[in-house]
């Protein structure tokens, strides 16, 4: 694939700031995994156009019919197992070696950043490869899709996916860690997120108001576009590698 030339879109001043940056973060959303074949939540072809999230991604819906919810999570685990991290995940992993401090703040539950080689990852919405006992909180890590539905804890109670559902708070350690990273970032890249799901959507503004540079990558404008120093429009798997070629 002919790689895109971004040299006319990116100023020298921005490149200099990124090269001199000591603390860098990347906030990612479903868009970074779109080119791996994982559908995003919103927008054309988004998951919530086809499924009823009340039944699948709320505590109440889950407890009403855990089998139905687990059928869906098992299907998603199978899809994610077959899919691969894409060029965007790989470049983000490569970037980690170039800065003294680097963190990936992800809203995704698919585990692709780790598979691509990223090490310092804050998972804001949990991970589909973990489940948690609804009674005692026991955590079980998975390396393949669940087999028996619904999966049970040793205590006999039902396990749920260890992901954040609608109406649930984010894990407090994760959002605190992410907020600290955001405030301290010299540069934050915001990749493939619609930036409308709070509190994750507030993180780029923390970077900006603390004097950091926000650089966005998305196929369309978002609320972040209004205050980002630069938005690169296009698919993350093309734009991010092309951009990184300019920087490094
Ligand atoms: N892969 C996953 O783990 C996954 C998948 C779907 C949704 N989610 C969940 O979605 C919720 C938050 O919303 P979000 O902002 O992450 O997703 P979202 O679906 O709301 O937004 C996706 C964004 O990605 C952009 N986009 C689509 N294709 C792109 C591409 N190829 N390159 C760059 N950008 C692209 C869209 O324009 C949109 O702004 C979170 O709760 C997250 O857990 C996760
Ligand atoms: Zn238990």
What distinguishing features does this structure have?
six-stranded parallel β-sheet, Rossmann fold, binds nicotinamide-adenine-dinucleotide, 9 strands, 10 helices, SIR2/SIRT2 'Small Domain', 35% helix, alpha/beta, 2 domains, 248 residues, binds zinc ion, three-stranded antiparallel β-sheet, 19% strand
Structure write-up:
With 248 residues, the chain is of the alpha/beta class. It has ten helices and nine strands. Strands 3-2-1-7-8-9 form a six-stranded parallel beta sheet, with helices on both faces. The chain has a three-stranded antiparallel beta sheet with strand order 5-4-6, covered by helices on one side. α6 (87-95) runs parallel beside α10 (236-247) and α8 (172-184) packs parallel to α9. The longest helix has 17 residues, at 66-82. It binds nicotinamide-adenine-dinucleotide (NAD) and zinc ion.
Q: Topology of this structure?
A:
Layout: H1 12-20, E1 23-28, H2 47-50, H3 53-56, H4 59-64, H5 66-82, H6 87-95, E2 101-106, H7 112-116, E3 121-123, E4 126-133, E5 139-141, E6 159-163, H8 172-184, E7 187-191, H9 203-209, E8 213-218, E9 230-233, H10 236-247
Parallel strand pairs: 1-2, 1-7, 2-3, 7-8, 8-9
Antiparallel strand pairs: 4-5, 4-6
The protein binds nicotinamide-adenine-dinucleotide and zinc ion.
The site of nicotinamide-adenine-dinucleotide (NAD) has 29 residues, from strand 8.
